[in-house]
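Hi there. Long-time user, first ticket. I'm pasting a complex I've been working with (about 1350 residues overall). I'd like to know whether the download I got is complete or cut off, because the file seemed smaller than I expected. Thanks.
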Amino acid sequence: MVSPGALRVVRCGGGGQRGARAVFSADSYLLYASGDFVKVHSVNTEETLLLLCGHADLVTGIQLNPHNHMQLYSSSLDGTLKLWDFMDGIPIKTFTVGPKLLALYVLASAEDSVFVVVPKKGERDTFQLVSVKLTKGAGQDLEGKELSVVLDGVGASPKQIAFGREDSYVVSVKDVNLQVYFFKLKLLNRFSLSTAKTKGGDNSFSCVVCHPTEDCIATGHADGKIRLWRNFHHKKAYTYSALHWHHDTVMDLAYSLEGTRLLSGGVESVLVQWHNESSCQKDFLPRLGSPIECISMSSDGVLCCTLHTDNRISIINSNLRFSRSIQGLIKSRDVKTGLVVDPRTKALVLNGEPGHLQFYSLQSDQQLFSLDIVQRQYIHQAGLKQSELVKVAFSAQGTWLATVEESEEVADPELQLKLWFYSEETQSFALNTRINTPHDNHITDMCFRDMAELGDDSLILVTTGRDCVFKVWVMVEDSDPEAHQSVSWSCDFVGGYHNYQATNCCFSEDGSLLAVSFEETVTVWDSLTWELKCTFCHPPGNIRNICFGRLTCSKYLIGATDYGFLCCWNLLTCALEWSAHLNVVVLQPDPLSEHIAAVSWLSKESSLFVFKPSEPWPIYIQRNLCKEKILLAAFVPRDEPEMISSEKYCWLRKSQLFFLTDTQELMTLSTKSLEERLTPSSKQLAVEESLPMTPFSVLLGKHRRQQAQEDTDLGKPVVHNKQEQASPAVKELLHTPAHVLPSASFLCTIFINSLLISKENKSAEEVADEVEMESEKAEDDSDEEDVTAMEQEDASHMELLGEMTCKLSKSQEKELRKIRKMDYSWISAF
Amino acid sequence: MAAYKPVVVQACPKLGEKITQDTLYWRGYKTPVQIKEFGAINKIDFSPVPPYNYAVTASSRIHIYGRYSQEPIKTFSRFRDAAYCATYRDDGRLLAAGSEDGSICLFDVSGKAPLRQFEGHTKPVHLVGFLSDKYRIFSGGDDYSSKLWDIPSATEMISYSEHTDYVRCGCASKVNADVFITGSYDHTVKVFDARTKSSVMTIEHGHPVESVLLFPSGGLLVSAGGRYVKVWDVLKGGQLLVSLKNHHKTVTCLCLNSSGQRLLSGSLDRHVKIYSTTSYKVVHSFNYATSILSLALSPEDETIVVGMTNGVLNVKHRKPEEKNENSQKKIQPAYRTYVKGRSYMPKQEDFCVSKPVKRVLRKYDKLLRSFQSSKALDAVLEPPIMLHTPEVTVAVMQELHRRGTLRSALAGRDEKQVNLLLTFVARRVIEPRFTSVLVIVADMITDIYQPVVGQSAIVDKQFLKLQQAIGKEIDYQEELLEVLGMMDTLFATFTKKRDTCLEENKSNGVTEIIETNRNY
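Hi, the file is complete. Here it is re-exported in full:
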C-alpha cells in the first residue's frame, strides 16, 4: 500500500566514480565509491551485495582500516569521514571534519589519525594534505577537528599523492613539481621538471605511486611518459629514468605486491605491464573498452581492477587475463539516441560504449547486453572523428530495430541507416539491411509506424533529415528465392515542404496520420496516399517536439516550439485548441495512457508538467525537479499497475517516468517515502542455504515438522504450508545480523507469537480469505521490489506482520479484510 | 574487453543482371565453334538418337555434322536448287527435305540417293515433317497448300488448301499420330487432323507466322511471328495464354530445351532469348553476331547450334562438369595417425570444452591492429588486391583516414609506389562508390608530392591522367544534370495539376498554408 505523499526524485543509476580507487577486501569483495554511495561487490559473482549509504555528497576516497580488515574508512565532499562495517553495511563511526574532503589516505603506522586533502582556507584552488586525529569516544558521531598540515600546495586528485615504503615519506605531484616529505627527518625535497613545452606535449605530472619495498617513485605524465625517481633523498644527486609507451596522459599507475611489476593505463584503454622497470619488457592487455581512470591491486596480488571513465570496472588476473567486468549504466560521452524502451525486455536503450547500444535493465541495475552497431574498431585517441550512434527506434513488438550512425564531420557526414531483425533463435538482433547515406545531411528524427494489430506487414519507417526531406522506408519481399533473407528495406516515398529542414516526425496512434515538422511548420500527411492533409504553425519559433495524443485524446497534436510555447491543435477542426507559455525541453507521451509529460528548463531548474491534451491545465506540476538540466525522459511501462490512491499521481499508475540529466544520472519519480526506499538491507548477505546447523535451527526444524504434522491432521496442509513459508517474523530474525536486532525482550513476544498456532478454529471461508490476503501481500512485495534496483527490503515488513499476528481484534481484522478486498477489485478494473 | 574488429569492406551490390541459377547454367558453354556454310541456314535438326548428329540445311545442300566434328560427316547435295527443312524421323534413320522446285526428297541417313521423291507441290516446299506414326509425311508449300504423303507408296493422301498465303512452318503432334499443325504467312496457325477433310482449329496469330512449336504434352502451342511469341492453350480451343514481346525484330525460330522447362527463341535482332515455361519471363539471353534464322538444341542441352543469315553456323558445346577431386585428396592417412581421439564421440554425461576458434586476420588487418599505417597501405597496394578487389584497398584507405593517419601513410614513398598509387586513384576515382574516399586520397597525394612534381616523368604522366579522368567525369556529370533537367520539365508537363485549396481556417488567428503538391 502506498501512502499518499509528495513525489520524490530518486536516483537509480549512473553517476560517476570520480577518481577514487577501488579497494579489494581481504575476502574477495570489491569496494568502490559510486556517487554518494560505496558499493560492495562480490568478485566471484559480479553481483552488488551491499550499498553503503549515509554520505550526503560525493564519496571521494575509501580505504580499508589497516588494523581491522572488516572495516572501511570513507571520505566525502560533505566533510565527514565514516568508518563502516562493510560486511553488514552499517556505519560504526562518523567523524565530522568540516571542510570538503577530496582524498583519503590511511596508514598502518599512524594508529589514531588519517590523512585527507582539504582546500586551503581563504584561497581558491589550492589544497593541502592534513592529518586528522580521530578522537576516541563512545558515541557514533564524533568530531574530527584536530587538523595538522603536512604538505601545502598539493593536487586535488587522490592520485597525486602517495605514501612511500613503510610510510616513511609522502610524495605529492602537481603540475611540473614533485615534493617529497620525510616524516622522520622532517625534510622536504622539491624537484621540478622544465616547463618548456617540448614537441611531445607538456610533461606535467598526472599521477604518482611509490615502490612498496624500495625507495623509488613512479610518476605518470601528461605526455605519456612514466618516470622512475631514485635517490631523492639528495636534493641534487637524484636520478630518474623514463619509460615511454603511452601516447597520451598516463591516467594511473600501480605497483604489484613486491614491486617487480608496474601497471599503467591511460586514454588508449590499454593496460601495460612493465617488468623490472625496464622499457623493453612489457606486456599489454589491449582494447579494454574505454579509457582507464584508476588501477588498483588486491592485497594478495592475484587480481587487479581498472576503473574506466564510462563507469565500468574490469577485473584482471595477475597474468593479464581479462577476468570479468562489473557494469551498470554505462556512461557515454553524449547520449544522442535518447532514452528508448525496448518493448521486448522493457529495458532502457541508449548509447553505451562508443558505437554500441546498451540495453540497461532498470529492475536489476545491470546491463542486459551491448549491441555492436557500428562494428568498427574504435580508436581511443583524442580528436578523432569516429562514427557515432545517433538515432534508435524500435518497432511496436520490438522485432525490428532501426539505427542511424554518423561520423561527426559537419560538412560531409558519413551516414548509415541500419535495420536489425530480432532473431528468436539467437535471441539477439541481426543486421538485415544497411543503407549508405540515406539522407544527404544529418538525420534529425526517425520513427516506426506502430500498428500492433496489423503485424509486421504494415511496418513503415520514416526518417527526417536536414536535407529538407523526409523519407518513407518500407519492407520489400525479395523475389529471388535463393537470396539469404526474404525481406529487405527500400525507400518508398520522399516528401518535403517548401525546402525547409525536416526536424521531427511522429505517427498517430492508429498509424493513419504522419506529422512531420519543418522548421516552423507542422505538416500532417495521410500515411496511405502520402498526401499532405493540413499544416499547422505557431510563429515565431521552430518546432522542437511534436507528438500525437493517445486513446481518448487521439484527435490532438501537441507541439513545443523554440520560443517557449506549448501548443495543442485539434485535428478535426484544424484549429489551435490551446497554447501555453512554457520552455519545453522534453515532451514525452505515455504509451499506456493519455498523459503527456513535459519537462521545462527555466533558469537553472527543471520542472515537470503532466497534462492531458484535452485539458489546457496540467494534472500535476513539480517545480524544481532537480538542479541539473534534464535532457531526456522516458515512460517505462510497469509490469503491473501500481496502487496509487491519490488522484494527483494517478498518471504514475501504469508507467514510470525516468529522466536522464546532463551529468548522465538516471532519475525516477517515486511516491514512496524516504525511509521505505533508503533503509539498507542486510538481507542479501545471508543466504538461507548457508545457515549453519545450530541447536536453534534444529529446534526450529522440529517445530516446523510438528506444525506440518498438525496441518495434515487438520486436513488443510496446503494453506498452512504457504503461511509457514511466509512466516516473516522468523525469517526476519534469521536474516538480520544479531547486533542490529532490537533487544531480546522485544523480539521474544513476536517470536513466540509467530510460533503459536492460533488458527485452529477457523472456518473454511476464513481460510479462503487468508489465501487471498497472502496473494495480495505477495503482490505488494513484488510491486515494491520492481520499482528500482536501489530499493531494498524494508523494515516496515516486520511491523506489518507483527500487527497481523496478534494485535488486531477479530472485528478489526474483518474490517481490514473487507477494505482490502474492495481495494483489490477496484485495481483489477484497470 | 573486445577482440579486434576487422576493417569492414563495403560490399556493393553488382549492377546489371543478377546471377541466378539460370545464368550459371546457360553460361556453362564453351566458346563457340564457327562453321561457314554456303548460304543462309534455314533449318537445323538434331537426330533424336545417339550420337546426336545434326542436319543443317543451307543453300542446295544438307550437311550432317557429328557432335564435335567441324567438317560435315555426310552431305546430301542432289538438289537442283535450294533445299529446305531437312528433318529427321523419330528413329533417326530417315531424313526428309523440301526443295525450291516443289519436290520432297526422302533420304536414308546412311545412303546417298533419295529413297523416295514426292511430287505434287507446284511451288517451293518450305515445310516437311514426319507424323508420329513414322509412315506419313506432311508438307507445306508456297502454293498455299499443305499435303499429307504416304511413305511406302509415295502417294499424296490428302491436300488441304485452307491457307491463303505461303505455308512456312509446322510441326506434328507427338501424342496423336493424325494431328499436325501448320503456320502460314496469312497470320494464322491451323491444326489439321488427317482423319478429317478440313482443319479442326484456326488460331489468329496476327503476324506472318515464322515458326510453330507444340509442347511434348500436346496441350500448349507456341507460335512466333513478327516480334511476338505467343503461347496458346490448344485444349481450351486455342485460347491465348501469354504473348511475349521481347525481341525487337522478327522472331524466326523456336525451340524447347530437353527438360521442357525452358523455351528458346531466335530472332533477326541477333538475340536468342530463353524463357521459363512456368513464368514466361526471360531468364537468360544470348547475343550473336548476325541475324538468326534457325536454332536447335541437342538432347541434354549438350550443344546449342544457331544458324545465321550470312551462312555461319555457330556451335556451342557444354563444358564438362567439374569434378571435386581436390576435396578428397585433403584427408591423408598419414595425418590421421597423428591426431588421436579424433573419432571419439562424446557421451551424454561428458562435459565438452570446445577449442577456441582462431580467427584468421588478413594481412592488412594485422598491420592495422598494431597501428602500422604505412605497411597496411602497402599490403593493400599489392597488385592482386588492388586489381581484383579495389573495395578492400579503398576500405583500408578509409579506415586510415578515420584514424587520421592517411597522410603519413601516403607520404614518404618512392617513384614506383607513387606511380602505383596514382594509377589506382586515376582509374577508380570515377567509380561512385569510391569517389568520396579517393578524392581525399588524391588531394593528399597532390599536397604531399607537390614539391617534387617535375622530377619524375612517370609520376607527372600519372598526374595528367588523373586530371583527365576527373575532367571527363565532370563533363559527364554536367551532361547528366542537363538530361535530368530536361526530364524534369517533361515530367512536370505530364503531371496533373491538383491544386485544390481547402478552405482556410483562420479562427485561431494562425495562418495555415494548405497545399497538396506531391513533392518528389
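A couple of notes from our side: Residues 674-690, 714-726, 760-806 of chain A have pLDDT under 50 and may be disordered. Residues 18-158 of chain A form a domain with the Methylamine Dehydrogenase; Chain H fold (CATH 2.130.10.10).
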